[in-house]
């Protein structure tokens, strides 16, 4: 079995969910043991966290937190590393270069899932920064997949919801904002919607039956597979 | 702020809950940053896990997992370490001796809470091993507190429930077994019941209004306090 290192804390609730989900997905009746998972939940300042998500400010001050955690996880024995936050995947190159073990990116995992499903038109829900970074647009376009995004006003509203999710102050009105955004994208003819912020899955209802590619879930599945099969 | 190291994975769902709860309890509006938490979720074999909880077998083969994780967490920068499992606190001495940072024990934290509440008679719910180890009897007796336990048959039944909790195969019947056990202890005149297995809190209902000292919750509160105040 491979040891997984998780750069976490963005936010803690989602990291906890990712960890639990991987724990459920690894088939201990086959492996004969629990997965070895090491989580470094980083002490990012709330100032940086909120500024970066609300506005399109520079993310560079966050990078040392990520690099420290990645190096720490590798030193602790992680065979591969994941990051429980979509937006911060703009630093995929920097994290990959800082370590000697594979960094398994959410972006790659989501794009691979879109291709496996055979979609040609997908919607994207994430932070302003994720949308503007084009981290999904470019690899999807290369594969002939069109990407639809929210209009500016709706995107601003969704961003505020994401802040409340991370700060654990969300309520029913955030679920409405989220579901409105999802339906808006389906109105544009998409075949599925990428939840490109790992916290957004917290707003899903068990009764939701639209086609979702949940970044948190696909990362959990991919991680469990690597843990089990190397 | 102090960095917390968690020896986790026993089971993963409870470790995830402990981590999330600490994330909620640390007041980021005061600290200005997220807590730094490192979790080493250990790859214990399911054979050892089940054997130790079902039967009163020797726990010694588990010890190297705990020691490795504790040392790993200290090396990674943990200022203090906790273990998200009650039964394995029989190794408190060995873990404490293996590291140079404080090991904050669940047992001590629970006993301190019982004293703060002024209880003189408390009940205990945990694994067979926790009950037979007398890890709560001795420190409570020293403080003049009487401890009530389940009869052998009920204890065996509860143990099976704990196995199902850890393996995530529990259902409504386990909630009934748990609540029956709780009421049985209150019938004996206890003022509160210690949930001395960190997984048992998963069976609590939001409507439960009996007096519970939940080991998982008191450990979360103590950890958050140390993180914030040193």
What does the model show?
The structure is a homodimer of 230-residue chains. With 230 residues, the first copy, chain A, is α/β, with parallel strands linked by helices. The first copy, chain A, folds into 2 domains: 4-105 and 218-229, Rossmann fold; 107-215, Rossmann fold (3-Layer(aba) Sandwich), CATH 3.40.50. Chain A has 11 helices and 7 strands. In chain A, the strands form 2 sheets. In chain A, strands 5-4-6-7 form a 4-stranded parallel β-sheet, sandwiched between helices. A 3-stranded parallel β-sheet of chain A has the order 2-1-3, sandwiched between helices. In chain A, helix 1 (12-25) packs across helix 11 (215-229) and helix 9 (152-166) packs antiparallel against helix 10. The radius of gyration of chain A is 17 Å and the shape is globular. Chains A and B meet through helix 1, strand 2 and helix 3 of A and helix 1, strand 2 and helix 3 of B. Strand 2 (37-41) of chain A pairs antiparallel with strand 2 of chain B.
């Amino acid at each position: 079995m491979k040891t997984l290192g998780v750069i976490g804390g963005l936010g803690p609730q989602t990291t906890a969910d990712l960890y639990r989900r991987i724990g459920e997905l690894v088939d201990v009746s086959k492996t004969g043991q629990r997965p070895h998972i090491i989580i470094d939940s980083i002490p990012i300042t709330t100032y940086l966290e909120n500024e970066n998500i609300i506005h399109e400010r520079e993310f560079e001050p966050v990078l040392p937190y990520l690099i420290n955690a990645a190096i720490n996880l590798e030193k602790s024995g992680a065979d591969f590393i994941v990051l429980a936050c979509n937006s911060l995947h703009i630093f995929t190159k920097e994290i990959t270069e800082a370590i000697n073990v594979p960094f398994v990116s959410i972006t790659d995992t989501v794009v691979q899932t879109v291709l496996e499903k055979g979609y040609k038109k997908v919607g994207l829900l994430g932070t302003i920064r994720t949308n503007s970074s084009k981290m999904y647009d470019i690899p999807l376009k290369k594969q002939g997949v069109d990407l639809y995004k929210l209009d500016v006003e709706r995107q601003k509203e969704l961003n505020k919801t994401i802040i409340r999710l991370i700060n654990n102050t969300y309520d029913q009105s955030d679920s409405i904002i989220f579901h409105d955004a999802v339906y808006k994208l389906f109105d544009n003819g998409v075949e599925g919607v990428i939840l490109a912020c790992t916290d957004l899955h917290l707003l899903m209802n068990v009764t939701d039956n639209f086609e979702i590619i949940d970044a948190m879930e696909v990362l959990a599945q991919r991680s469990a597979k690597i843990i089990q099969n190397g």
